[in-house]
Amino acid sequence: MIRYLRRHIRFSSQHAPHQHAPWRSQRGTVLLSVLIILAIAMTIVVAMAASSSQVFKSVSTLQHQYQSSIYSRTIINALSAAFQLDTNNHDSADDIWTSLPPLPAEDNSIISATILPLNSRISLNDIFSTDPLLKQRVRNSIEQLVADMEGNVNFIDELYLWGEGKDTDKPLYTNQKTYSNTGKPFTTLAEIRLLPSITPELYDKISENFNVGTKGSQLNINFASQYTMELLLPELSIYIEQWIEYRNENGGIPNISQLQEVANIPTDLYSQNIRFLSVKSNNFYVKLSISRSGVNENFHMLVRRDLSSGSISLQRYIEGNNEHYF
After folding, report:
1. Reported pTM
2. E-assigned strand segments in 165-269
3. Residue 74: per-residue pLDDT
4. Are strands 110-117 and 103-104 parallel, antiparallel or unpaired?
5. Which of 39, 135, 170, 221 sits between 20 and 30 A of 11, alpha carbons compared?
C-alpha cells in the first residue's frame, strides 16, 4: 500500500511540472487520500489488537474455569476417600474430613475447602413441611431468631409468600424491582436476600442457623451450635449445654441413646424430641475458595453421602460469592 502511494505521488509530480496551481491541488488530494488510508489502516490495527486482547481474556477465563472444575472434582474425590476410611457410626468435629488444610496448586493458586454437614443447621424449607409439628417448630425457630435480632416480624410472612406462592396478587418489592412468588421451596439461601424485610445482619444470622439443602430438621448434635439446638428444641435448653460440654471433652457423642444419660433427661421429654436429633450426616455443603494473584473465586457444592459405601455424589454446583448458599 505504501509503495503504491509513493509511485502515485511520483507519477503525479512528473506529469504536471509546469501546472503550478493544479499540481498543488492534486498533491493536496493525494495527501488527503494518504491520511484517510492511514487512518483506516490504524483503525483496523487497533480493532485487531482489541479483538486479540478479548480473545486472550476469554481463553484465560475458560482456562481458569477448567482448572477450577478440576480442583472441585479433586476435593470431592478426597472427601469421598476420607468418608470411605471413616468407620465410625457417628460424625464429629474430630473426623479428618472436617479440617482439610489449604493446598497449593498450579499457577500459584491456593485452594481451601470448608465442609459442613447440612444437618448442623435447621432446614428452612421445613416451614413448608407436611408434618404439622415440624412445620410449627421451624416457624417458631425463625420467629425466635427474628425476635432476638429485633428484626421485622413481617419476615416470616414473606417467607411463606415466597415459598408457597399462594398470594400471587401480592408480589414482593425490593430495590425497586418486582419479584413474583416462586411457588417452590428455597433452592439457595441467597434467595432470601430478595425479601423486603431482610437486613444484612438478619441474613448472616439466618445462614448461621438454617440451611436450604435438605428437608427434615434432624440436627447432628455433634455439629449443631447450642443456639441452633435451642431454637428448634427450646424445651431442652437446660440440657443442651451439658451435651455441648460432653461432646467437646469426649470428641463427640457416639450415639443418641447417650443423650439421656449425659444430661439426665426425663424419659417422656427425651422420647418427644429424639426424632429431631442425630449423630450422623448424609448431606454436606462443600465451599471451595481458590485464591489466584490476590483474587478469590468461590465455588459451592452440595454433596450426598451413601452411608453404606461411603461414596458421595454431587447434587448441585454453583459459582458464587463468599457466602453461604446451602
Report:
1. 0.75
2. 172-174, 177-179, 210-211, 219-220
3. 78
4. antiparallel
5. 39
